[in-house]
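Structure (tokenized):
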């Protein structure tokens, strides 16, 4: 999510920052012989992808919203968003060794890669989509997003 924002704006902001910081550090450390690598994992089963936690957080946040904002989104938006979470849960990988293997290679290789992609979805979906024109990737991603009450 450091290449494109989908389903988690706040989370994606932090990943964009990590990407930028890592690229800067990689260039700055080059003259010292220090190699900096970026691990770009796909969708893995972690606490941040735990559907029960996410659903609780979304409902808690929804409950704190002013009625005007709730009306703009509509109750159906929240239901569809949570349903999408449950569909996405079926796509995550629980094999975290895919990520740790990338980390191990980056740390022990004589010639580590600049970037490592872990997981089939990173390699076959997110990375390729990040190279498409924004209009195409936006069309694909917005197809999955729930529609607000004003755009139903």
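Design, position by position:
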């Amino acid at each position: 999510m450091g290449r494109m924002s989908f389903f988690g704006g706040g989370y994606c902001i932090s990943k964009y920052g990590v990407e930028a910081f890592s690229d800067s550090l990689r260039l700055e450390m080059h003259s010292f012989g220090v190699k900096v690598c970026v691990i770009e994992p796909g969708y893995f089963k972690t606490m941040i992808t735990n559907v029960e936690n996410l659903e609780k957080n979304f409902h808690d946040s929804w409950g704190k919203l002013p009625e005007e904002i709730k009306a703009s989104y509509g109750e159906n938006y929240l239901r569809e968003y949570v349903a999408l979470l449950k569909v996405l849960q079926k796509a995550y990988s629980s094999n975290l060794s895919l990520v740790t293997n990338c980390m191990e290679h980056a740390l022990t290789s004589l010639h580590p890669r600049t970037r490592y992609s872990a997981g089939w979805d990173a390699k076959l979906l997110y990375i390729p989509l990040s190279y498409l024109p924004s209009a195409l990737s936006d069309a694909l991603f917005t197809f999955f997003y729930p529609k607000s009450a004003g755009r139903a």
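Reviewer-requested clarification: The beta strands are 38-41, 115-118. The radius of gyration is 18 Å.
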